Prior knowledge:
By secondary structure, chain A is of the alpha/beta class. Helix content of chain A is 27%, strand content 23%. Chain A has helices at residues 13-34, 36-41, 53-56, 67-73, 112-117, 137-148, 160-170, 179-192, 211-219, 330-338, 373-384; strands at residues 62-63, 90-94, 98-102, 125-128, 151-154, 174-177, 201-204, 223-230, 234-238, 246-248, 252-257, 271-277, 288-294, 309-310, 321-323, 326-328, 343-351, 358-365, 389-392, 405-407.
Amino acid sequence: MTAHYDALETRDPEVRERDMLGRLPAQVAHARARAPAFAKTLAAIDPAAVTSRAALAQLPVMRKGELLELQKSARPFGGLAASGFGEIARVFASPGPIYEPEGRAPDWWRLGRALFAAGFRRGDLVHNCFSYHFTPAGSMLETGAHAVGCTVFPGGTGQTEQQVQAIADLAPAGYVGTPSFLRIILEKADELGVTLPSLVKALVSGEAFPPSLRDALAARGIQGYQVYATADLGNIAYETPAREGLVVDEGVLVEIVRPGTGTPVPDGEVGEVVVTALANADYPLIRFGTGDLSAVLPGRSPCGRTNLRIRGWMGRADQTTKVKGMFVHPSQVAAIVARHAEIAKARLVVDNPDQNDRMILHVEPRPGQAVPVEAVVATIRDVTKLRGELQVRALGELPNDGKVIDDTRTYA
Amino acid sequence: MTAHYDALETRDPEVRERDMLGRLPAQVAHARARAPAFAKTLAAIDPAAVTSRAALAQLPVMRKGELLELQKSARPFGGLAASGFGEIARVFASPGPIYEPEGRAPDWWRLGRALFAAGFRRGDLVHNCFSYHFTPAGSMLETGAHAVGCTVFPGGTGQTEQQVQAIADLAPAGYVGTPSFLRIILEKADELGVTLPSLVKALVSGEAFPPSLRDALAARGIQGYQVYATADLGNIAYETPAREGLVVDEGVLVEIVRPGTGTPVPDGEVGEVVVTALANADYPLIRFGTGDLSAVLPGRSPCGRTNLRIRGWMGRADQTTKVKGMFVHPSQVAAIVARHAEIAKARLVVDNPDQNDRMILHVEPRPGQAVPVEAVVATIRDVTKLRGELQVRALGELPNDGKVIDDTRTYA
């Protein structure tokens, strides 16, 4: 059995990096030429000069949280898409509503690679329990399954008894959907006294896939793998039989940045997943801030795939909060840090002793530097319009969890 | 604006008939070679000889009602499909459950032609409110819309408020789904004070489309058309701007037969719609009895389409009933008629005066012939194992409604 979907997965990492960076200028130019919102945000950029990660890091991050307003002012895609109705195959609505395009190219969401890594092969019947209505997950997995050469049963959500009957009758090799719904289906089958021996593989997504559930599935003969995909970008990273983090998809360039900024963090540090879609002509997202937290997992996967690995979903990066009725954004914390070169890293802790909101900025100084306390306190007030205290910590003392604003208030 | 989907629609009817009949031998041979159930039922047939409607009428009718048992004995498709998992794109489950394949060819269900006739054009956004889950209607209309060059929003069923919002935000040109759900959406929009001016066309199916609803839609600026399609065959016949019956699709050969038999009725008489799929390599249904009643509408459509027209759905053909606890099938009525050449047409009327079941066979004699009453009464008992009376009617006196068994019993 072939171990890899294609030769891209096992490329020399330097060859991949050169290839990806080599595609950046054309994709940046395409976004600027065809997507009005990028024409504006990238107006000052020379696409031809975006040939390194350092140059890419200079471009503005377009954050998921901006989509709602952008789309309200320019239906349907806020000026971020390069293709319109008639050119694209489908349009979806995620909660918000945020609208997402799907182009006409086969396996447009690039889920085929994730399905292959989870063991799906040509000729398999796939029972697809992601919804096809409004949101794109159903279509994502279906178009990926078609690329692998599978036939799909569109089970959608709910109707648990009928799902059990269809699986019993049609004998699919695998399941795709949320892990919790697979558990519900298996429990319903137990209750009905129906065995589902054909099911031996699963690709799950959309929620946490705890090791306990993974092991419970394995005990029933089902090998479950997860994929990290979003409605804007499709496949970002996928689990492989090595079971060491998630390997980044070959169609995207992934950066991990300090939340609220566009600045990449050192490898291994937790930050926001920022993705540039290199293989997508219809929705050429450049430095799209997913709002998800993850971190690079150093080293290479033993499965032979040589691409960057990340740890998977580690929470939400958007830590915007309200203090004494005023919004405080991660980007404001970044602005404070930017004004003081002595600060290496900062974390704004919000608590409420005696039910009064309090802000304390914890900072790690750069090696050998002293933080000017009075000046920073003034900057806090200047940037946030709120009073805040400062606490200087030792180097490496702040936890590596991607949190820029840590809201610990309790309401008794 | 082009008035027709392609040149096939306006062919000289004789050219079409020659083309269709010319494709019969290969399709019959294909079904026999690749679909085990047809290999059995068509074993005695020489495919090369099936070159006329008369020859086709000699082949057995495979009825919808037989699918459940056939599929139970041979998953998934009862031996009627020529392609299996891996070759087909999707498999669906209709109530029963009856499983249906969808092949990989573009617009496999041939709904593009119906969408075009309803006014859908390249570049249109289509709001699709057929379900994509389990049953094939969602996929049917979506793949048809893609063939026309439209973009599709997969709305599915339910979530009426969100449907209104998506239509208001995305401004689709047209709706596809059941007519009643379109009414519900429009009423919800009224209730919310939202106008949906972009909606100007609709293709509806799945239930009756009464003229009152058609007019109510037109009053809102929405031109609604209907299509007659099934989960086994896809597009069978579709409405056109001429609004005179439904024009038969170019991919199927339609016969109208006496319910319970394989015998075509004279043009204009109501009978069961029997379809041979000429353009389908994956599911080559030969003389598939839909169980639906319709009739040929004589003449040609003023819209320029030259194919056969039918009246649309006129009820269910399967009139099997129980008399004194015994099943009586339309095929038994046909068996009685077959034994007496003097009978042109028959209708078994079941009533229950004094709450006692009674059967009366009404017959029309062939011109100039006398019906042998005693012999026919004996045949009734022989075939049905039940006592029945005979009533000889004048030629043309029996109603033209496709009813072979008319169950008029009332239970007070």
